[in-house]
# Entry
Amino acid sequence: MNESIAIVGRTNVGKSLLFNKLTKARKALVVNYHGVTRDVNSGYIELDGKTIYIEDTGGIPEEADQFSQLIINKVLKSISQAKLILFVVSAADGLTNQDHEICKMLRRLDRKVALLINKCDLTRKAQPISEFYELGMKEVFVISAKNNIGLKELKEKISSVGSSKTYIEKDIFRRISIIGKPNAGKSTLINTILHEERMIISDIAGTTLDAIEIPFKFKDNNFLLYDTAGITRKSKTITTLQKFSIGSTLETIKTTDICVFMIDAEEGITKQDKIILNIIKKYNKAFIIVLNKIDMKSKYEIKELKQELEYFSNIIDNASIILISAIGNQNIKKLLYTISNISYSIYKRYKSSLLTDILNQALEEHQPPMIDNRRIRLKFAQQAKSDSLSIIIFGNQTDKLPTSYEKYLKNFFISKLKLVGVPLRITLSKQKNPFE
# Structure
């Protein structure tokens, strides 16, 4: 996008907090650790009637490790496409040799660059802000992202970059989260869907630390893809950073529309997979079960895995189970069409007359039980106004209806409405039919 802005700098200078403040959303994980952001996080800034695309790039590491060159490659790609680069340094740390090196790299790109001296509230006398002017940047902003110092002036600069064109409103995007254990292939799936090496991938479990949001379009449907940190077992010794990452993943599940629950075919179905599925169910989210890495298994082994998946049959709300190879681009189109179909079903409104007809069919096939020589009467059904699909059934003695019959009604509605992977909640009410 030629209207995009990129935030660049070394690790732990406050880029992600600045990104969150500018986008007015807690998308990027903010922890006092070096190297938390590795992939490119993206969002939108709403200013003066304009919607400007912004990317929070991974912190450029000082010391080489297994991810350093991959991070630098992602940063270079992001800033090469940006109209304005926000180069963030830390007043608390003072001017470093690495800041000088990043500045040299930016000069070679021939892009508009604004120097942001962040953490100005933490400056020590021994490290005056004036030393940063050695970098020779024409535009300098002294800010504190944490305390909102200097952000008004910075936003004015950002607004001057954006055109009057407004991008599609964010709230019409369907949120799709890729959920699973570490190293199940979540980031590889994102890269395959986007047809680009957007996410950093490696054989090291836990490469993704933050929940990364990526806009994506398929068949005229707008989606936001979330690549999340893998959820590890509680019994494992995990670092404080991993705890924050898992917390970020759980928060993403809460706010998502559809969860793509990924299982590693090489490992098979584990206890941890069952725990993750129960988390998705707890938050009442639509979901698809995806068995990844099937290219690594024989036909016989795949058949055995399918039999294992029958464990989920009683709790998956008729969810789709799709066998894929993310790295081999196998069945990815099938997955995308399934996501598209489910996204349509989630917010569909059903007429009360249709729901009541289905209720009557259910009653004809299987009557409610007698309570104290009186038959429980269910008279009317309507859809509740809520973010998830919920049907209210009106009648008498509904508080005495057995749980088994409620489950029967739920399954009957799921079948008749042809819901696939869309959770349905049945609520019983003793109130009178509101339309009588």
The mean pLDDT is 78. The two ends are 55 Å apart (CA to CA). The CA atoms of residues 104 and 135 lie 9 Å apart.
